[in-house]
Amino acid sequence: QAEKAVALNPNSAMAHFFLGKTLFFAGRVEESIPEYKKAIRLNPFPPHALPW
Fold first, then answer.
1. Which of 9, 19, 26, 45 is deepest in the core (most CB within 10 A)?
2. What is the pLDDT of residues 1-52, one digit of tens each?
3. What is the rounded distance in angstroms from the CA atom of residue 7 to the CA atom of residue 45?
């Protein structure tokens, strides 16, 4: 479903973040990296990351 979310809204940082997370936890770490990078490019200061 994360891939569908990216397909429906390719400019969504959250969609790319969750696709990256899904790929990472599926053991597809190398594939997750570009998704995380895209999420950061789209939204470099996401509100959910501020407490960290």
1. 19
2. 999 999 999 999 999 999 999 999 999 999 999 999 999 999 998 776 665 5
3. 23
Q: What is the pTM (predicted TM-score) of this model?
A: 0.85
With contact defined as beta carbons under 8 Å apart, do 20 and 39 qualify? yes
pLDDT of residue 52: 54
CATH number at residue 6: 1.25.40.10
Range of the domain at 10: 2-49
Assess contact for 4 and 34: CB atoms under 8 A. no
Q: What are phi and psi of 11, to 5 degrees?
A: -100, 15
